[in-house]
Design brief:
This protein is an alpha/beta fold and 566 residues long. It folds into three domains: 20-315, TIM Barrel, CATH 3.20.20.70; 336-437, Helix Hairpins (Orthogonal Bundle), CATH 1.10.287; 443-565, Alpha-isopropylmalate synthase LeuA, regulatory domain (Double Stranded RNA Binding Domain, 2-Layer Sandwich), CATH 3.30.160.270.
Amino acid sequence: MRAETVQKYRSYPGVDLKDRTWPDTIITKAPVWSSVDLRDGNQALVQPMNLEQKLQLFQLLVDVGFKEIEVGFPSASEVEFAFCRTLIDGGLIPEDVTIQVLTPARENLIRKSFDAVKGAKKVIMHLYNSTSTLQRHAVFKMSREEITALGVDGAAVIKAEAERYPETSFRYEYSPESFTGTEMDFALHICEAVMDVWQPTVDSPVIINLPATVEMATPNVYADQIEWFCRNMKNRECALISLHAHNDRGSAVAATELALMAGGDRVEGTLFGNGERTGNVDIVTLALNLFTQGVDPELDLHDINRLIEVSESVTDIPVHIRHPYAGELVYTAFSGSHQDAIHKGMALCEKDGNGIWAVPYLPIDPKDVGRTYESIIRINSQSGKGGVAYVMEKEFGLKMPKAMHPEFGKIIQKVTDSAGRELQTSEIWDAFNNSYLQEIQPYNLVSFNVVKRHIESDDKDSVAEIEAAIEVKGKEKNISAEGNGPLDAFCTAMKKEITGNFSLSRYHEHALSKSSSARAAAYIQVKMDSGAEKWGVGMDTDIIVASIKAVLSALNRCAVQDDSRE
C-alpha cells in the first residue's frame, strides 16, 4: 500500500457506552435462526438458482431445522414470485415453518409481495428501506423526515394488506438497511415509528432487524450499537432484535456472537456464508461454535457432508478446504507434533470414557458432524512419527510399539521428501511392507518346527527344542537348538550357526483381530555386536512363527545397515 492512500480513510466512530455489559455475558441458548440463503444468498450468485435448485435447497433448510426461511424477493422478478407460488400451491411448506419475503417500502411492490404469499399459513413480511447517512445524501438525497415517512407509509400498507388475508398469520419485520452506517438516534427513531404503526405486543412481537449491511467497524462496535439500541428503545419487550451481519471485514461471525451477548435474539444468515461481496454471516460456523461450548444450536448439522454437497450443487461455490468445521482439511493434521498430540488425546479420551471431548487441536469430535477419524491424520514432509503410527493403527490395525515410531518415521520421511507431496495410505503401507515384511535377504525362513517342548513346574525353566531351515543368500541351511522357549531356541540356533552374537532389545505383540483364528503381529528390536540396531516385524496366525519372522526381519535390516557401513 502507498502511504498516501491511507489518508482517504477514517476510523469508524465508536458508541458512547461506558457502562457496556455485553463483555461479561455468556451465550447460554441458541438464537432464533432465519435462513436467507434463498434470497440474500441467491441474489449474490453469478448464476441464480433455478426452480429445481431452489426446491432442493429449501428442503435441506427444512431438514436442518430452520423454522423461519426467507424464500425470496417476490416483487423483484417473476422467477422469485413463481417460487413462492410453487411452495404454497404445492403444499411444500411444513406446518412448523414460517416463510419470509422481503419487500421495499413501496406500495405497489408490497401489494405484489402479498399476492405472492396468498394462501400461505404463516408469513413474515419483511419491510426495509435504507437509512444510512451516506445513502441519504449520495443516493436518495432525502432528509431524515422523508426517509422516516417511507418506512412508516410502507408499514401502514403492510398492515392494511394483511387484513385482506385473514387465512394467513402474518408477522412483521422491519430493517433499517445499513443500520451500522446510520446515526444511532435516527435508527432508533425510525424503528420506533414503524413499531407505532404495527402496534406489537409481548405476545405478538415485531422483528426489528439491525443489519450490518456493510461491515464497517470492529465487532465490538456492532455489539455496542446493539446494546445501545436495546437499552434505549421503548417497548423493548415487544420486539425481537434480529442480527444480519455481512462479512466485509471478515468478522461477521465474531460480530454476531458479540451482538448476541449484547441483546440480540435472532440471527439471519446463510449456510457457509454465501452472500453479497464477502458474504453473510455463516450460520454453520456460528451454530457449531455454540455447540462446542455445550449450547444446543437447535439445528441438525450431524451430516455436514450433505450440507456441503447441496450447497455446492445449487450455488456452484466450493466450500473452502479450510472452512471452519466443514472444510476438507479441518480435521486433518500434517504437523508431526499436532499428529502426536491428536493421537494421544484421542486415546486418552477413549480410555477415560467420561463423555467429555478434550482432544488437542480438535475443538469438535468429527463424528458429531458426520465426519470420520480416518482422514484426521494425513502424511506429508511435515508429518511426524506419531501421525505415521496413527495411520498404521487406524488403517491397518498395526499397533507399533512407541519405541519403534522414530525408526519407521524416518523411513516415511525419506519417502515424502522424495515424493514432494502428501502420501496416500497405500503408499505408507507399501513403505512398511517393503521395509519390514518383504526384506528376505540375506535370511529367509523356509520352515520352522518345534520338536519338543517341556513346560516344567516349580522352580524349573521350560525347555523347547526347535528345528528350522533358513535360506542364507540363496542357499538353504538347517539349524537346531534348545532354549527356554521356541523363540529363545531359534535365536540360539541363529547365533551359533549363522549370524554370530546378537540380543533382543524389545519385544511386543498383538492380535490383528478379535477372532480365534486371528493373525498376530510381532515387533522385535535386535541389536548386533557391531552396533547395528533395528526393528523387525512378523505376521502369522501362529504367534511363535510371527516372532521368528520378526527376528529375521530385524536381522535382515541390520545386515543392510552393516553392509552400508563397509
